[in-house]
């Protein structure tokens, strides 16, 4: 199939773009560079949080379904009931099993289905196996096309039964996990005969944005950077006490890049442990500034309690920086102890403290060598162009199947 022959694909995401979802943007752009036409459907936007020019441009390219308003959404669902009664009946049966909240998803899906028909879209793909996949699933049924979805974790793996992952896996054309760990979790909730439709496609980086890695900093003190949303799953509330304990043995500085609901609690811990001169809070930064923070650091620290496979690990490794992370989810698939970084049990503040002390005592040349090992690994396994090619092959196969 040539680029000119490729059918249009619709992407469905709940809130898009967001600062923490740049991996979706990269995937879409890589697909478009390969000749795919991709239309972005988001239920809502988050423009006030966008600081990166790439995210701002993506916001302008995205159609936000809820902006149609409740009257229009209700009208489209009523019209779907007239023109596609069997499909609407099937959607309503699913809504009854799931609860009244899913009636809103069905109305959103009716609007998406209308736009799918108008744009000639042949397949829908959702990111996250949560309500965005519900909308894609209902819209695909109403429009008479197929759908697929990518799971990331940890949200989907926290509530697989209430999200009915098994049902979604059973009638999707295919499903994507971003790590082997993620695929194993999906396999738990679907019959073995459906395992073959679950594929591992990594989130990717753009190698061209990471030419020769920046010079490794040689000056002390040890400088660590942590990047992520200030939420309970990222483990920053455990990192700060561990850092305070480690600083009794070594001079360590930390930059925290991100924002979120736990910022007040983080600020309290910084004061409580006397870390005002050791910790810098930057807020959200654009991609160029994130790369600058990584370049100025000796290592990335990621103390997460729950994860998928964080993009920030890939970005740190691409810049030749080792990683101190927790041994959860897909993280060990990239972070290899003694080779590309350090791993500690999630929630183990003592282990995290000891690892930071060990990191501070590690010779710069050893850290630099581990960083280069990580760079080689991530460039080999997480090139967004190669991963988008795999995804495109799945779209091609899905679009050639007859409608259900």
TrEMBL record:
One of its GO terms (molecular function) is glycosyltransferase activity. It is an enzyme of class 2 (transferase). Its EC number is 2.4.-.-. Keywords: Glycosyltransferase, Transferase. SUPFAM superfamilies: UDP-Glycosyltransferase/glycogen phosphorylase. Gene3D superfamilies: Glycogen Phosphorylase B. The keyword Transferase applies. This is Glycosyltransferase.
